[in-house]
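Protocol step 4 of 6: structure prediction from sequence.
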Amino acid sequence: MCLSSRMMFFRRGALALFLLWAAMMPARAADWLLAMPESRVEPGQAFEVVVVGEPDDAGWPRRLAASIGLPGNGPRVSVELVAAGEPGPSRQRYVGQWPGEIAGIVTLTLADAARAHLLVDARIAAAPPAAAQPGDGEAAQPSGETPAAMSAAVDHDLISPAEAETVEPEALGFHEPMYFVAGGDAPKGARFQISFRYRLFDNQGVVAETLPVARGLYFGFTQTSLWDLESDSKPFRDTSFRPSLFYQWKISNPPLGDSLALAGGYEHESNGRDGGDSRSIDTWFVRANLRYHLPDGRTYIGIEPKLWSYIDKSDNSDIARYRGHGQLGLRIGRDSALMLAATLRRGTAGVGSAQIDLSYPLRRSIFSGVGAFVHLQYFNGYGQTLLEYAESRHPQIRLGISVVR
């Protein structure tokens, strides 16, 4: 094949790929607009939006991904919109649950249509509004439905794992609690933890669009350190590094607020030392995170069991006697108020550990579980560090702050 023929072949191939890509793009979604019967929403309550435009050939989607942009180029928070009622001429009503911790003037944007955005005033109502009468000058809701009726219009079936979206819209997110607490004894010191997770494939990327299941694949990292503030040179007693690769999806019912998230994958834990102080384990794990909201709609009970199987524990072959094969996480409280959390472990030898965390916001948090909190931590039992997995500590009490709880 001559050079000119090859060039023509590649050009035709590139043109075919471009046309295929263009056909797969949500062109009509890009022209959608957002409207709201009321520009004000109440945190923690259901709200309604109207999407105006022409649906694609399959009709209006059952669910739409959207995000809330916080002031000052802050992080974006995901929110899911669910179709409610029959579509009208070139429009469809959707309802969602506004996050209880987001207040102020923010923007709401559709994930697949950047032009579809509007300003929203999120604030808690001082008192229930009186029923509007004709001629009061109040804008009536086009649907004539209350938020309760709007929620009732949405079926409350759980989303199947195949339909489930990842927890946050941004690639980088929070993973486990992050805190700095000081106190305890033998010796006195500080304990701190940093943690994040990174979604490997963007929702609108080539991989995720070709293979949607890849959207739930994450890399996670958590570091927990004990810092000796009493001894000379203030050394770190031990640090645990926990990188992980896991798959996560969220099964939830946004209008009700209750949720179930599932995760499973591989996790390595090491203290980064060599010789006799070297400690490391490799595990396969599965984890569930269930949240059940009490009748007030804001207080919830969380249950987070985690089970694991050891792949390699040669540095500490008897660690299962003290750490076991699982742990139970429990919490109760409000994201905007007092929160009590506990992590319980029990080894095969009948011993284990208990960690209790009590936190309260110093200021209104940015969004659910994230902000600035005064943090009280209690630890008792085995394995406060990976180096000391077989050593028991009497109760340690520390006080400090946390930014994720």
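Step 5 (inspection) to follow. DSSP finds five helices and 21 strands in the chain.
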